[in-house]
From TrEMBL:
<comment type="subunit">
    <text>This enzyme consists of two polypeptide chains, which are synthesized in precursor form from a single polypeptide.</text>
</comment>
<keyword id="KW-0865">Zymogen</keyword>
<keyword id="KW-0378">Hydrolase</keyword>
<dbReference type="GO" id="GO:0006751">
    <property type="term" value="P:glutathione catabolic process"/>
</dbReference>
<keyword id="KW-0012">Acyltransferase</keyword>
<dbReference type="InterPro" id="IPR043138">
    <property type="entry name" value="GGT_lsub"/>
</dbReference>
<keyword id="KW-0317">Glutathione biosynthesis</keyword>
<dbReference type="GO" id="GO:0103068">
    <property type="term" value="F:leukotriene C4 gamma-glutamyl transferase activity"/>
</dbReference>
<protein>
    <recommendedName>
        <fullName>Glutathione hydrolase proenzyme</fullName>
        <ecNumber>2.3.2.2</ecNumber>
        <ecNumber>3.4.19.13</ecNumber>
    </recommendedName>
</protein>
<comment type="pathway">
    <text>Sulfur metabolism; glutathione metabolism.</text>
</comment>
<dbReference type="InterPro" id="IPR052896">
    <property type="entry name" value="GGT-like_enzyme"/>
</dbReference>
<dbReference type="GO" id="GO:0006750">
    <property type="term" value="P:glutathione biosynthetic process"/>
</dbReference>
<keyword id="KW-0808">Transferase</keyword>
<feature type="active site" description="Nucleophile">
    <location>
        <position position="355"/>
    </location>
</feature>
<dbReference type="InterPro" id="IPR029055">
    <property type="entry name" value="Ntn_hydrolases_N"/>
</dbReference>
<dbReference type="Pfam" id="PF01019">
    <property type="entry name" value="G_glu_transpept"/>
</dbReference>
<feature type="binding site">
    <location>
        <position position="438"/>
    </location>
    <ligand>
        <name>L-glutamate</name>
    </ligand>
</feature>
């Protein structure tokens, strides 16, 4: 693993940063600093992660919020722990409801796609199990910025403006009024450097901190959510909130060229990245990135993603197991499909059986890889009046095909796009990594890991490197700065290449790695307002 600050072959405006006592890498500078402040108060990496995550709901509301979900990989007590804080469908939301309504698709916006939010429960659970400081203490920065305001950063302003244009088009009706009241009080999105604040958001965060999130699920906040959604024909009830519990799960991993790469098991899509790496493990890649290497990486991803969209669901409903999808025999059968030309992937037959990312580390060896999201920017577009809570729309990922493993069912968790990643070697932690961005996330994980391990780029160069994204079939989209020679070589192999002219479709990530001497090195990327706060 290359921990050097050399930037070749992808020059960067950012330097790889080093620290020893602590580090926080986040997509927003104020949030990263909030986490670092907790370390300096005697908190650990878990406290820093909670402070950063809560702060991000305020300073980057375009990508996450109190009403979203979260996942985390936590290295503590000399082991890696997985937290799944995704929420299930309401008890009274079923396929029969859609049949009676004559609906063929799950709506994107409004009250119907809202599932139980898990983020507040994640903060409380992480704090109770691993934190050194109280939840009240670690959430103070988020409360401060919500109440006193903060200057909006450029990337956040860009996505806020896009979200506002989308809202004018899609947020039609009384149920969406409160989104405009909270997030566009002046009849527009805030400009870069403009102060935005939300007293309701601050009060809600205070209540969550004071009650270890229980008021959100059992008290007055839960009651307010129930009453507003009931008024607007929503399916999420107070009973759904009251029965919610986060899940601690054993992380899943694959061995890749001397390293172990870890992800959260389904219902998250981290399995896609692991399967792609397993397929790629048996293929030779040159040490220098070239068209042949990129072709093999793309083909491995296409096969894995096709399987993922076919089989990943709430694990209680999957027709096959993680072990089957990662089994040696099955991986070899998928690998055998890769040739010198781009393929049209089909799912195999295994044996039956808006998002923010942050990374933290402290001087004691604790490390956190955490991700939370409202999905599609501001989520459902529904804001509970008097609370500042923007509710997510994760239910949109359910299939309405009753034969599909990811078919909607009461109390079932949907296929989830947000995934934190973690690297170890010989059972020792190297550190957290992640790339936010919907279905781009496993593709981002794969590209970052191959940059780090196969092509020996340092973390900053690995994040800076231009990316591609598989869109389906043989269609590949690349960033504007993607090397022309590689594009030409991929076209010759049958890939249909298009160049993306807009910003924001290729993920935004952070990395923290620990070297053999215990020094931390961190990186964030130019696709975001990111910051690495160092101690």
């Amino acid at each position: 693993m290359n921990f050097s600050s050399l930037e070749y072959p992808y020059p960067s405006k950012r330097n790889l940063l080093y620290g020893q006592k602590g580090m926080v890498a986040s997509s927003q500078p104020l949030a990263a600093q909030a986490g670092l402040d907790m370390l300096k108060k005697g908190g650990n990496a878990i406290d820093a992660a909670i402070a950063t995550a809560a702060c991000l709901t305020v300073v980057e509301p375009t990508s996450n919020g109190i009403g979203g979900d979260a996942f985390a990989l936590v290295w503590a007590e000399n082991d890696l722990h997985g937290l799944n804080a995704s929420g299930p469908a309401p008890a009274n939301l079923s396929l029969e409801y859609f049949e009676k309504q004559g609906l063929k698709e799950m709506p994107v916006y409004g009250t119907t796609p809202i599932t139980v939010p898990g983020a507040p429960a994640a903060w409380a659970e992480l704090s109770e199990r691993f934190g050194n400081l109280s939840l009240k203490t670690v959430m103070k920065p988020a409360i401060h910025y919500a109440r006193e305001g903060f200057p909006v950063t450029p990337a956040t302003a860009y996505y806020w403006k896009k979200a506002y244009k989308n809202a004018l088009k899609n947020y039609q009706g009384e149920v969406f009024k409160h989104w405009f009241d909270v997030f566009a009080p002046q009849g527009r999105a805030p400009e870069p450097g403009e102060i935005w604040k939300s007293e309701d958001h601050a009060t809600t965060l205070e209540i969550i901190a004071a009650t270890m999130s229980r008021d959100f699920y059992e008290g007055n906040i839960a009651k307010a959510i129930d009453e507003f959604l009931s008024k607007h024909h929503g399916k999420l009830k107070k009973e759904d909130l009251e029965s919610y519990q986060v899940r601690w799960e054993k992380p899943i991993s694959v061995h890749y060229r001397g390293y172990d790469v870890w992800e959260i098991p389904p219902n998250g899509q981290g399995l896609v990245a692991l399967q792609a790496l397993s397929i790629l493990e048996g293929l030779e890649l040159d040490t220098e990135e070239n068209g042949q290497a990129v072709h093999r990486i793309i083909e491995s991803l296409k096969l894995a993603f096709t399987d993922g969209k076919t089989y990943i669901a709430d694990p209680d409903h999957m027709p096959t197991s993680v072990e089957s999808l990662l089994s040696k025999e099955y991986i070899e059968s998928r690998r055998a499909m890769i040739s010198e030309n781009a393929l049209l992937p089909e799912p195999g037959m295994p044996p039956r059986g808006g998002t923010v990312y942050l990374a933290t580390a402290d001087g004691e060896g604790n490390m956190v890889s955490m991700i939370q999201s409202n999905y599609m920017g501001f989520g459902s577009g529904v804001v509970i009046p008097g609370t500042g809570i923007a509710l997510h729309n994760r239910g949109h990922n359910f299939s309405l095909d009753p034969r599909h493993p990811n078919a909607l069912a009461p109390g079932k968790r949907p296929y989830h796009t947000i995934i934190p990643g973690f690297l170890t070697k010989k059972k020792k932690p190297l550190g957290p990594f992640g790339v936010m961005g919907g279905f781009m996330q496993p593709q981002g994980h794969l590209q970052v890991i191959t940059k780090l391990i196969d092509f020996q780029l340092n973390p900053q160069a690995a994040l800076d490197a231009p990316r591609w994204q598989w869109l389906g079939g043989k269609k590949i989209e690349v960033e504007q700065n993607y090397p022309e020679l590689l594009i030409q070589q991929l076209v010759e192999k049958g890939h249909e290449i298009s160049i993306q002219r807009e910003r924001g479709n290729f993920g935004r990530g952070q990395i923290i790695l620990r070297n053999e001497s215990g020094v931390l090195c961190g990186a964030t990327e130019p696709r975001t307002d990111g910051c690495v706060a160092v101690w």
